[in-house]
Write a structure and sequence with these properties.
Helices cover 29% and strands 0% of the residues. The protein has 42 residues and is mainly α. The longest helix has 12 residues.
Length: 42
Amino acid sequence: MTPIGRIGEPSETGAVAAFLASSDSSFMTGGEVFADGGLAQV
């Protein structure tokens, strides 16, 4: 299990991809975005 306590839904991963593809992420440069429910933090 992940620290968030559940498996992610495909729509949640899609929302991250949509954000990164949109102009809302225009100020992000070279950052890493993990859509893994906190697993990378363990």
